[in-house]
Design goal:
Rossmann fold, 3 domains, 6-stranded mixed beta sheet, 4-stranded parallel beta sheet, 14 strands, 19% strand, globular
C-alpha cells in the first residue's frame, strides 16, 4: 500500500478521535472462536453494531458537526438519509445543540422515523418527501442552498471520512499485534476511505479488502473502469451499502488504499445474517454482514492469518426477517419455485404429494394461477428441501410421472 496525497492525514484522524472521546463507544474487537476454527485463521470482529446508534455512522456525522464554526452551528444543518446516517446526525444535533433538518423518503418505515426522532428529540425536524432516497436528497440539497445551511453528507466529506477513520485507529490500538487483513463493507466509501487511510500509513503491510453487494457494485465498477461511474440500476436490499455512485473524494481514496473489492450475492448475505444470529447471537443489518460473508471468498488466502472484519451496523427491521430467510433458502438451494400444471381431476394433487414429493421436503407455497384451459390448471408451488441434494431426486420423480413443470426461481417479480 502506498501513501499518496489522496489519503486522509493521520493527524486529522487523531483530532477526530479527540472530538469523539466521551461521545462514541470504543467498540470491542473480539475473537470469533467458531469463525476462526471454521476458516483456520484468527478472525476478529470490530463490533460497530454496538455503537450508541448501532452503527459507525455517528463517528463521521459528529466529527463533521463538531468541526463547524459557531456561525455554521447557529445556522443549522441539513441531511438526507433513511437509515444509519440520519440516526448519527440526529444524535449529534441533540448532543451539540444544533438544529437539524433531516429529509427522509415518505416510504421510510415508521420504526426508523421514530428512532431518528428519539435520538434527535427537539433538536431535529424530520421532513418526509419523495418516494426514494435520491428524491429526498435532491430536496434536502435544494433546501440547504436556499437557507444557507450546512449539508452533512453521509460519506463524501473530509470531516466525515476522518471521523470514520477512527475505527481504524481503534483496531490498531486494540489488536496489539500486526493484522494481515481488514475486511470492510463499502457503500459510498466513507468508512473504507477513512480506515484505509489509517492503515496505509500506520500498518502498510495490512491488506484492506472492500466488500460490496453484487447488486450494487458502484465502487468496484468505478475502480475497474478507472473513473467514477453512476449505475443506472441497483439492487436495494442491502440498503446500508446500496449506492448508485461512489463519492468523488471516496473514489480517489479507495482506488489508492484498497487491495481488492469482493462482491457478495444478496442471498449469501442473508445466509450470513442468519448464521451470525444462530451461532454468535449477533443481530446485524444486511450491510453489517458483508465483511463476514466475504470470508469464504478468500479462505485460502487468509488461512493462518490475523483478520479483522468490520461489523458496520445492526439496525435491522424485524419485519424483513421473512424476506431474509427466503433469500437465504433460495441462495442455499433449499427452496425452489415451480409452475406446475396439474390435471383438473380429483386426486391429482394428492398423487403428486404421495408419488413425487420427498417425505422430508415440504410445500411452503401453493397458489393456482388463472386457468387457460379446461383440462389443465397451472399452480405456483414453492418447495422447501431438507437438503439441496433432494433437488435432483425431485426433478427425476417429476419427469418419471410426466409432471409438466417450469422452474421459476429466476423470475424476480414473483418474490416482490
Amino acid at each position: 500500500m502506498i501513501v499518496t496525497q489522496n489519503t486522509v492525514e493521520i493527524k486529522k484522524v487523531l483530532d477526530a478521535q479527540l472530538r469523539l472521546s466521551g461521545v462514541v463507544e470504543k467498540t470491542p474487537l473480539s475473537l470469533s472462536l467458531n469463525l476462526s476454527e471454521e476458516l483456520n485463521a484468527s478472525i476478529f470482529l470490530k463490533r460497530e453494531d454496538m455503537q450508541v446508534v448501532r452503527s459507525y455512522k455517528i463517528r463521521g456525522a459528529y466529527n463533521k458537526m463538531a468541526s463547524l464554526t459557531e456561525a455554521e452551528k447557529k445556522q443549522g444543518i441539513v441531511c438526507a438519509s433513511a437509515g444509519n446516517h440520519a440516526q448519527g446526525v440526529a444524535f449529534s444535533c441533540h448532543k451539540l445543540g444544533i438544529q437539524g433538518k433531516i429529509f427522509m423518503p415518505v416510504t421510510t418505515p415508521q420504526q426508523k422515523v421514530k428512532q431518528v426522532k428519539w435520538f434527535g428529540k427537539s433538536s431535529i425536524e424530520i421532513i418526509l418527501t419523495g418516494d426514494t432516497y435520491d428524491d429526498s436528497s435532491n430536496e434536502a440539497i435544494r433546501y440547504c442552498s436556499e437557507n444557507n445551511m450546512v449539508f452533512v453528507h453521509p460519506f463524501d466529506d473530509e470531516k466525515v471520512i476522518e471521523g470514520q477513520g477512527t475505527v481504524g485507529l481503534e483496531v490498531i490500538e486494540q489488536a496489539g499485534q500486526p493484522i494481515d487483513y481488514v475486511i470492510v463493507p463499502i457503500g459510498g466509501g466513507g468508512l473504507a476511505s477513512g480506515l484505509g487511510s489509517v492503515f496505509s500509513q500506520l500498518s502498510p503491510t495490512t491488506k484492506i479488502i472492500g466488500v460490496q453487494p453484487a447488486g450494487a457494485p458502484s465502487m468496484q465498477k468505478s475502480i475497474e473502469k478507472g473513473e467514477r461511474l453512476k449505475l443506472e440500476h441497483i439492487e436495494k436490499f442491502v440498503d446500508g451499502a446500496a449506492v448508485k455512485q461512489p463519492g468523488a473524494l471516496t473514489f480517489e481514496i479507495c482506488k489508492e488504499v484498497l487491495d481488492d473489492i469482493i462482491l457478495v450475492e444478496e442471498g449469501e448475505i442473508c445466509s450470513t445474517m442468519l448464521k451470525l444470529y444462530n451461532e454468535n447471537a449477533i443481530v446485524v443489518e444486511p450491510a453489517g454482514a458483508l465483511s463476514i460473508a466475504a470470508l469464504n471468498h478468500i479462505k485460502d488466502k487468509i488461512a493462518g492469518k490475523r483478520v479483522v472484519c468490520i461489523i458496520s451496523g445492526s439496525n435491522n427491521d424485524i419485519t424483513r426477517m421473512e424476506e431474509i430467510k427466503e433469500r437465504s433458502l433460495l441462495y442455499e438451494g433449499l427452496k425452489h419455485y415451480f409452475l406446475i400444471t396439474f390435471p383438473q381431476r380429483a386426486g391429482a394433487l394428492k398423487e403428486y404429494l404421495v408419488n413425487v414429493l420427498n417425505p422430508t421436503d415440504d410445500i411452503t407455497y401453493f397458489q393456482y394461477v388463472k386457468k387457460n384451459s379446461r383440462e389443465n390448471g397451472p399452480a405456483v408451488v414453492g418447495i422447501e428441501l431438507f437438503s439441496k441434494e433432494n433437488y435432483h431426486l425431485l426433478i427425476e420423480k417429476m419427469k418419471a410421472y410426466n409432471i409438466q413443470y417450469e422452474e421459476i426461481n429466476n423470475k424476480v417479480e414473483l418474490f416482490k
